Amino acid sequence: MPQRHSKNNNDLAFFTYDEKKKLGYGTQKERLGKDSIKPFDSCCLCLKPYIDPLCCQKGHVFCKECILECLLSQKKDIQRKQAAHVLQKKQEKDDEEEKLMLQKARELEAFDQQNHGAVPQYNDKSYTRDKNGFHGANSVKVTSYEEEALRNMKAFWLPSATPEAPVKVEAPSNCTVCPEGNEKLKLKSLFPIYLTEEDKEQKKSNSISTNFICPSCKVTLTNTLTLVALSTCGHVFCKKCADRFMAVDKVCLTCNKGCKERNLVCLEKGGTGFAQHDDHLEATDFKHLGSGSGLGLVRPALKT
User: Fold this and answer.
1) Which residue has the higher pLDDT, 33 or 120?
2) H/E run at residue 196
3) Whole-angstrom Cα distance, residue 172 to residue 168?
4) Does an H or E element contain 265, and which?
5) pLDDT one-digit tens code per residue, 11-68
6) 61 part of a folded domain
7) Based on the structure, what is the number of domains in the chain?
8) Residue 175 neighbours by CB under 8 Å, 6+ apart
């Protein structure tokens, strides 16, 4: 039995539903796997297990070497931008002074030509004069102006005379920012954190990687748990223990050091510029058909 004509019809002026599906038109969704999610004990910059971890007040954890190198590069970049901004200000000031000098020189030259020139001034309207008081074709000054205009001519159709837009350097900010949260970050606001390793007796013999546990309830720390670090001593607990004990007793369960509610910092988990976490575990792309090409162009899906 032959197939229906509508299934094989491809000479229409528009794409059919079947053709759009074959070209990948529409929203393409894919759920992220475990390989796309950053572990909780990995640095937000190098994405490797952190060494000598430092945490900011927003809960982003970095390796000590990574965050120091990042802040140092930011300071060097700020110094470079400040130097470029100062140089631009100086250049603008010099240009203004040069324009004023040229304007004064032209006014003096025009005044001198007007009072001592060979061609007298006429008030008769039948004579065509330029702005300096000289007659058009017989004026040497007009010729020099024309030559200067030809030299400074800006024409987009000539590569040598194409005008260039000046690049204006804005005054940079003096504050370094967190590479993950984009908020202001200073080195003195970072504090070290300490994770409790699992005991060798409790550790499985076949496990190679190091496991970390909550020092209070002895639960293995993973991405599924919300972790809380104390900015006073740096010990890390699960959120249940932090809310049940430390938020009430105002003291660390490991070192008995006093703490306040503002010292409880929730650690960010899993999310980087290359991975998602929590409820955002689905990658979405929207493909629309290119005009006249018959191919699908990929662009990010609009957030609803």
Assistant:
1) 33
2) strand 196-197
3) 12
4) strand 264-266
5) 667 777 777 777 767 677 777 666 667 788 888 888 888 899 999 999 899 999 999 9
6) yes
7) 1
8) 184, 186
Range of the domain at 69: 51-110+171-191
- The torsion region of residue 68 among left (phi > 0), alpha (psi -120 to 50) and beta comes to alpha
Q: What residues contact 187, with CB distance under 8 A and at least 6 apart?
A: 68, 71
What confidence score (pLDDT) does residue 283 get?
67
pTM here is 0.61
Hey, how many other C-beta atoms are within 10 angstroms of the C-beta on 253?
Answer: 17
- Write the CA distances from 296 to 22, 283, 287, 302, integer angstroms: 10, 18, 6, 17
CB atoms within 10 A of CB 154: 9
Judged on CB neighbours under 10 Å (0-12, 13-18, 19+), 114 is middle
When pLDDT is averaged across residues 83-104 and rounded to a whole number, the result is 91
Closest alpha carbon to 18 in 5, 35, 31, 29: 5
Residue 104, C-beta contacts closer than 8 angstroms, at least 6 positions apart: none
Sheet holding 61-63, edge to edge: 61-63, 53-55, 191-192
Query: Is 54 exposed, middle or buried (CB count within 10 Å of its CB: 0-12, 13-18, 19+)?
Result: buried
**Is residue 184 domain-resident?**
yes
Residue 43 included in any domain: no
Could you tell me if residue 294 is inside a domain?
A: no
Provide the percentage of residues in the chain whose pLDDT is more than 90.
19
- Pairing type for strands 26-31 and 282-289 reads antiparallel
**Buried/exposed code over 73-87 (b: 16+ C-beta within 10 A; e: otherwise):** eeeeeeeeeeeeeee
Instruction: Look at residues 31, 43, 26 and name the one whose alpha carbon lies nearest to residue 279.
Output: 31
